[in-house]
Amino acid sequence: MRSPISPRRFLLCFNVSSREICLTKKCSNLLGGRQIFNFLIDMGIFSSLFHRKQQQTLDLKVAAITTTYVVRNHSVITNVYHDADGDWQFLGDEEVTEADALVLSLGEIIELDPSVEEVLDMKMGCSAHRTSKADAWKINKE
Predict the structure, then answer these.
(1) Looking at residue 38, what is its pLDDT?
(2) Judgement on whether residues 69 and 47 belong to the same structural domain of the protein
(3) Distance CA 129, CA 47 (A)
(4) Is residue 79 part of a domain?
(5) Are residues 88 and 80 in contact, defined by beta-carbon separation less than 8 angstroms?
(6) What is the DSSP string of the chain?
(7) Last residue of one domain, picked from the residues 57, 77, 92
(8) Which residue, 57, 76, 92, sits at the end of a domain?
(9) What's the pLDDT score for residue 18?
(10) 56 close to 50: Cβ distance less than 8 angstroms
(11) Which residues, given as ranges, of the chain have pLDDT below 70?
(12) pLDDT for the residue numbered 3
């Protein structure tokens, strides 16, 4: 069992774009590489670094299918599908037909509802659902 490491015991700096992590000489003598790695995971640093990197590489010009209800009536997006072929769908709870479909860019979808960014790391073939905008997304792997 490893002992908890206090963030006040050493200075940690990192460069988000290059993912370089620097520690002061004093702390590198106190901690082994594995302890440093575990500390960074515990502090959530790796997840935020990788999430930012993924957001930077996500093509916001990709076409996304949504509905007139979401765009014109401001219906809440409650269902997100990342199809097996890579297409995205952002739908509300309404019953829809092909006549209700609209094509926007992924960036425009994010402008309509920034909370969908939470599920944009879903792999192809997965879907995410919630019952209201206040609820957390539940990702289903299909």
Answers:
(1) 56
(2) no
(3) 22
(4) yes
(5) yes
(6) -PPP--GGGS-EEEETTTTEEEE-HHHHHHS-HHHHHHHHHHTTHHHHHHHHHHHHHS-TTSEEEEEHHHHHS-----EEEE-TTS-EEEE-SS---GGGEEEEEHHHHHHH-GGGGGGTTPPTTEEEE-SSTTSPPEEEE-
(7) 57
(8) 57
(9) 45
(10) no
(11) 1-57, 142
(12) 37
Residue 72, domain member (yes or no): yes
The answer to whether residues 53 and 67 belong to one domain is: no
Residue 61, Cβ neighbours under 10 Å: how many?
9
Bridge partner residues of 89 (DSSP): 65, 81
Read off the tokens for 9: 């015991």
**Do 36 and 106 belong together in one domain?**
no
Structure-block tokens of residue 110 = 């994010």
User: 81-112: per-residue pLDDT in tens?
Assistant: 999 888 999 999 999 999 999 999 999 999 99
Both tokens assigned to 136: 């957390």
- Look at the chain and report how many structural domains it folds into: 2
Tokens for 70, please give them: 């979401």
Structural domain containing residue 15: 7-57
The answer to the question of residue 2 being in a domain is no
Q: pTM (2 decimals)?
A: 0.60
